[in-house]
Design a protein that fits this description.
Length: 232
């Protein structure tokens, strides 16, 4: 089985004003290529910390996390940045859109970072915004968009450069049911490609049906991984 992500005995702690909080406590998790895995569990159980380590945004304290067979914690800061720019798309729960850029410019950022001509990158961004129902809002600044519209811009930005791993933190939390389902169909179509994978942190039971596997977390541990594939 080809793996997109392999985590072994991952630990991560935070110092919160002199008190040590354990966010990850010996995480073991394999995420296969070509599948959509959902991480579920109560707030504060370590889900966002785990996907941040997987995406190379945070460093673990100990243990191993490999992406496509690479241990990116051994990379220099510059090498890690280039690896993430090519291989990872991240949908943040707080969206992290740049306020001075319009929707298309925000979505085009990963393409420009990877060296694409700005005009072509903008055209591709508008095309993808159209797919998520925002084709007529591509000139809007984030402040001119609703929370749900900003979320769709953030999702388009994560998908635009065809990353091998897409990591999403509550991607449907600000969306109505119909829009959320449309976004999940788009994300699922990406995950079904054999050379890509998708990891979603969610509390939204409406989208559980899209998962191939569901990993349950509690208190910094993976307590169960269920095969939830609906493929025929």
């Amino acid at each position: 089985m080809n793996l997109a992500v392999r985590c072994q005995n991952l630990t991560k702690t935070y110092d919160t004003g002199g008190q040590i909080v354990t966010a990850l406590n010996g995480i073991n998790l394999d995420i296969p290529m070509g599948e959509l895995m959902m991480l579920v569990g109560p707030s504060g159980c370590g889900k966002t910390t785990l996907i941040s380590v997987i995406a190379g945004i945070l460093d673990q304290d100990s243990g191993l996390c490999e992406l496509f067979g690479e241990n990116i914690q051994q990379f220099s800061s510059k090498e890690k940045l280039h690896f993430r720019a090519r291989n990872i798309g991240f949908v943040f729960q707080t969206f992290n859109l740049l306020p001075a850029l319009n929707a298309a410019e925000n979505v085009a950022i990963p393409l420009i970072i990877n060296g694409m001509n700005r005009h072509l990158a903008k055209r591709k961004a508008i095309d993808l915004l159209t797919q998520v129902g925002l084709g007529e809002r591509w000139t809007s600044l984030p402040s001119q968009l609703s929370g749900g519209q900003q979320q769709r811009v953030a999702i388009a930005r994560a998908l635009i450069h065809n990353p091998r791993l897409i990591v999403c933190d509550e991607p449907t939390s600000a969306l109505d049911h119909e829009t959320g389902l449309n976004v999940m169909h788009l994300l699922k179509s990406v995950a079904l490609q054999k050379d890509r994978s998708l990891v979603i942190v969610t509390h939204d039971a409406r989208i559980f049906e899209f998962a191939d596997q569901v990993a349950e977390m509690d208190d910094g541990h993976i307590i169960n991984v269920k095969d939830a594939s609906l493929r025929t």
